[in-house]
Amino acid sequence: MQPFLTLVRRELGICYVSLIGYVIIAAVQFLLGLSFVIVLRALVNKPFDTPVTEAFFNNGLFWLVMLLAPPIITMRTFALEKYSGTYETLMTAPVGDFQVVLAKFTGALCFFMSAWLPLLAYPFLLKRFSVDLSVVDTGAVGGTFVGIFLFGALYISLGCFASSLTRNQIIAAMNAFVLGLGLFLLSYLTFIIPPKPGWQSVVLQHVSMIEHMKDFTRGIVDTRQVVFYVSLTALFLFLTLKVVESRRWK
Amino acid sequence: MSATPMIEVENLTKRYGGRAAVRDLTFTVQRGEIVGFLGQNGAGKTTTMRMLSCFMPATSGTARVAGFDVFTQADEVRRRIGYMPEGNPLHLDMRVREYLKFRARLKGLSVARSRERVDIVTEQCGLGDVANKVIGTLSGGYRQRVGLADALVHEPELIILDEPTKNLDAHLTRAVRQLIKDVSKDRTVFISSHLLPEVELTCTRVIIIHQGAIRESGTLDELQRKMSAGQQVIAELSAPVPDLREAWEHMAEVEHFDIAAAEGSFHRCSLTPRAGVDLRPKIFELAKSRGWQLRELTRTRHSLEDIFVHVTKRDQEET
């Protein structure tokens, strides 16, 4: 346990001590602020029946953050250690491979979530300056954060996997982005292929991340979706572990 | 001290694809020894060290550190070794103290113990002045010390150093060498190097590896003795050339000789013995019985460099 915590602390240390960590946070805040302004404008012009949280996620900037931030946060994890050679000192310390993978994942996920924290201020701002107190629903805000967490966990694990495959950070980020984008674009299949009876449409429905997030932002946390994200996260962590272990097979 | 050797390597082989980087390595390092692992670039030094430090497993064969198998008991082994890889990779964004503490905690030391040990190794490696500096801003010599401090921080029984003085200037090399000597007092050290003086000055025993296999092994004296056998003897004698010629031709142990004039009435004879005999006592006896004056009698002595070149050249000729 101690090596794990030491490694998580180190991972977080890199993020919060280096400039790149703050650049990521600033960029995320900028994009989120921008989408907040867009939602506010829409709210002022005409009342709408969907929850604010849903309106917020419906605009593209939200997805931009979701898809771009994890690859940039995780590109460093394994690739930099391999590049600088510290991978060797790390792997010859009395630490298990699984601990290393889990620590890097946890560190990146904590940082990712911390970049979203200022988002919590938005509902309060809305409540404070809005006449209609029902505009923000606590359940919907909670659901949104659960969604962000689950989605983030999946994309961070995917990023760790991409980073473990190479010693070049740029390639790691690119791979993670392309893989992540591919996974995300599966959502659009439900729009392209007209729904018809049969299992195909059901499968598409279940892999559509846009649909998932729509539920989350309405405050609905469906176990099927939780299982979907958690199992995929576990899969990518497992693959990362295998890549890390692969030095033993070569 | 227990009787189990620090390192036991048996028939260790590592293949990358079809190419063997290390072939059938067998050697033992006793506790308290400082062993130099000598070889040219690409001879298999780093591969061997990586296997010993549990970074990667062997294709076949076994290696034990302090009696623990490096493959099946990797955690036990890792706790007992301090490994400094080639090129001494460090986290350049961290401060020296912070880094050492991080490493100490990673290696399982408690908070109090890690603080204590970090203080000790900082002092031991002369890092007191730079303890709060960012590693990336340090010079090569200091970085090397940080790497060494990291290897020492958890009080390992065995230190494995891969090319510890690579890319250092002469002055720093000397400082690091002294440091290695200091820390080796109470532990076993296994150093790899392609620099001969390095090994000659620090190590008690040398293992020469070439193209993935061990060529020679022994203390420096043993190697020199081994090499000197069959080596030329130089004798300067004051005697007429025909007499000398006749004497050498009749001495059965002399395979080949050369006679050259030296100053005065002396002649310089270079004699190559047959089958590794030492010619010196015979020559002395001869000079005494014939009443010749003898002013020099030496056997060419080998530096480690000669031994190394000889061993590796012999191999190249064989292959």
Kindly give the count of domains of chain A. 1
Shape of chain B: elongated
Strand-residue fraction of chain A?
A: under 5%
Number of strands of chain A: 0
Strand order of the largest sheet of chain B: 6-7-8-3-9-10
Overall radius of gyration of chain B: 25 Å
Main β-sheet description of chain A:
none
End-to-end separation of chain A in angstroms reads 29 Å
C-alpha end-to-end distance of chain B: 43 Å
Number of helices of chain A: 14
Tell me which CATH architecture of the largest domain in chain B applies here.
3-Layer(aba) Sandwich
Provide mean pLDDT of chain B, rounded. 83
What does the oligomeric state look like here? heterodimer
The outline of chain A comes out as globular
Which bin fits the share of residues in helices of chain B?
Answer: 25-40%
CATH topology of the largest domain in chain B: Rossmann fold
Structural domains of chain B: how many:
2
CATH class of the largest domain in chain B: Alpha Beta
3D architecture notes:
The complex is a heterodimer of chains A (250) and B (319). Chain A has 250 residues and is mainly α. Chain A has one domain. Helix content of chain A is 79%, strand content 0%. Chain A has helices at 2-17, 19-45, 52-58, 60-74, 76-84, 86-91, 97-116, 121-129, 138-164, 169-185, 189-192, 199-207, 209-217, 223-245. In chain A, α7 (97-116) crosses α9. Chain A starts with a helix and ends in a 5-residue tail after the last helix. Chain B folds into two domains: 7-226, 3-Layer(aba) Sandwich (Rossmann fold); 232-299, Alpha-Beta Plaits (2-Layer Sandwich). Chain B has helices at 45-52, 74-80, 96-106, 111-124, 140-152, 170-183, 196-202, 220-228, 241-250, 280-290, 304-318; strands at 7-16, 19-29, 34-38, 60-65, 68-69, 81-84, 158-162, 188-193, 205-210, 213-218, 233-238, 254-261, 266-273, 293-299. In chain B, α4 crosses α5 (140-152). The longest helix of chain B has 15 residues, at 304-318. The mean pLDDT of chain B is 83. At the A-B interface, α1 and α6 of A face α2 and α3 of B.
